[in-house]
Amino acid sequence: MSSGTLFQELVKCNEQPNRVEIYEKTVEVLEPEVTKLMKFMYFQRKAIERFCSEVKRLCHAERRKDFVSEAYLLTLGKFINMFAVLDELKNMKCSVKNDHSAYKRAAQFLRKMADPQSIQESQNLSMFLANHNRITQCLHQQLEVIPGYEELLSDIVNICVDYYENKMYLTPSEKHMLLKVMGFGLYLMDGNVSNIYKLDAKKRINLSKIDKFFKQLQVVPLFGDMQIELARYIKTSAHYEENKSKWTCTQSSISPQYNICEQMVQIRDDHIRFISELARYSNSEVVTGSGLDSQKSDEEYRELFDLALRGLQLLSKWSAHVMEVYSWKLVHPTDKFCNKDCPGTAEEYERATRYNYTSEEKFAFVEVGADSLHYRVKLLLGRSIDLNRLITQRISAAMYKSLDQAISRFESEDLTSIVELEWLLEINRLTHRLLCKHMTLDSFDAMFREANHNVSAPYGRITLHVFWELNFDFLPNYCYNGSTNRFVRTAIPFTQEPQRDKPANVQPYYLYGSKSPQQQRGLDVCLS
Fold it and tell me: Which of 3, 275, 396, 417 has the fewest CB atoms within 10 Å of its CB?
């Protein structure tokens, strides 16, 4: 929205001849963005109401006796994380407030907001953007009127503590989400109605464990190049001042977590250990001749799963190290006293990025990146193999076979099975669209034409089968029912049943994914 400020700066005085044109251009540029801000204000209001209604439902005296699943608690935790992120983004983006003010002045000059409703909405948006922590305050106020809300939030915080302590996360964003939910959850619980230190005394929550987590990882990424200090949630809580001696994470200190050079010893060891294990398994597969078609035991499949999971966890761990060091550096910029190469006239962003890394840290970042990219290419009996390319080839072959099987099923049925063909093609199209976000595949149309034998010919398998069914089954054996507006099969057939190929037996994952959806889809086709 910063472009609107440029237009506004051109208006020097009310007597400026082209001020009307400038104001019109300002409104034209900023109006779509202000509309988004308005929708954002209504969204956060509706989200808070929805979240509080769920909390109220689960905190009912009778509902508290029921079991709340971990998945549901984590979903509520994601809600809390969303509120924390949105509020921090709103607080940090001062340009949004400035541009909205510029739009408001231009719109008032052009009398774009003449009706009382527009004026009131604009005023509400101005107050929403001007008040820091507006989302947090509204959420806190609405939660405090719900009896027993702190019990449910305690369950959410405890599940996040358990997941973080046992490393039950995969991506860096999941790891950082757990930490933010712990901090923001404690802030929401500590207020006029509830006291987190009394809950700690009752062993309802474990503050010392959370303090240890926040001590180890003081700064986490928030969104993009923005970050947040976890201790800030504790410092701004209602009863912090009289209990500050219980917290060590609020004291200024440097955690070894942010020294990437010290972490490199463990990173190298983990990298060598995993590469050796992966190479040992890959070479044994080639030597023994076992491949995809060989049947393995459940234990062997479990070992494969654990190996793949361990590789993903290592990649996630290294990525998290890089993100956390980068976030910590942004919060703690250097100066000319700490770094002699940093000039006194350097901008704050330069002090946080350009001059804030030593040569050893830069080389460590390059090495971590190289280790992560190394998983794309593996050495197998002296040959370099691009795993990404191999996986892409396998996925492409599976996609082609899935399309081929969908058309084969259509060729083995009468014309009514075109409904199922449409479903299968839509499933494959969606799968292709999701996979293309992570790998390079041929276009879906190209794959479909190849499976349909329609690359060079003007017609394909589907067209030929439709033509065959129309001539030898549909036209002789169907009549039109005017009352229901559909074609129905006649009671007495006028031709022999056409000979069709028997459909091949294929694995469920080539069709609907598993047996249960496949059986349900078969029933739906019969009913349709």
Answer: 3
The per-residue pLDDT for range 23-77, each reduced to its tens digit, is 888 888 888 888 999 999 999 999 999 999 999 998 877 766 777 889 999 999 9
Residues 224 and 81 in one domain: yes
Contact call for residues 288 and 352 (beta carbons, < 8 A): no
Question: Furthest-apart CA pair in the chain: how many Å?
Answer: 98
Same structural domain for residues 413 and 323? no
Cα–Cα nearest to 278, from 298, 313, 304: 304
> Within 10 A of 321 (CB to CB), how many other CB atoms are there?
21
Residue 460, sorted as left (phi over 0), alpha (psi -120 to 50) or beta, turns out to be beta
Tell me how far the alpha carbon of residue 340 is from its chain's centroid: 41
Classified as helix, coil or strand, 379 is strand
CB atoms within 10 A of CB 496: 9
Domain containing 96 equals 18-253
Please, which residues bridge with residue 486 across strands? 481
Radius of gyration of the chain (CA): 31
Name the amino acid, one letter, at 474: F
Burial of 134 (0-12, 13-18, 19+ CB in 10 A): middle
> Which burial class, exposed, middle or buried, applies to 494 when counting CB atoms under 10 A from its CB (0-12, 13-18, 19+)?
exposed
Taking 50 as the pLDDT cut, the residues of the chain under it are 1-8, 377, 379-382
pTM: 0.70
CA distance 59 to 72: 14
Contact 90, 80 (CB under 8 A): no
Is 163 inside any structural domain? yes
One domain for residues 214 and 272: no
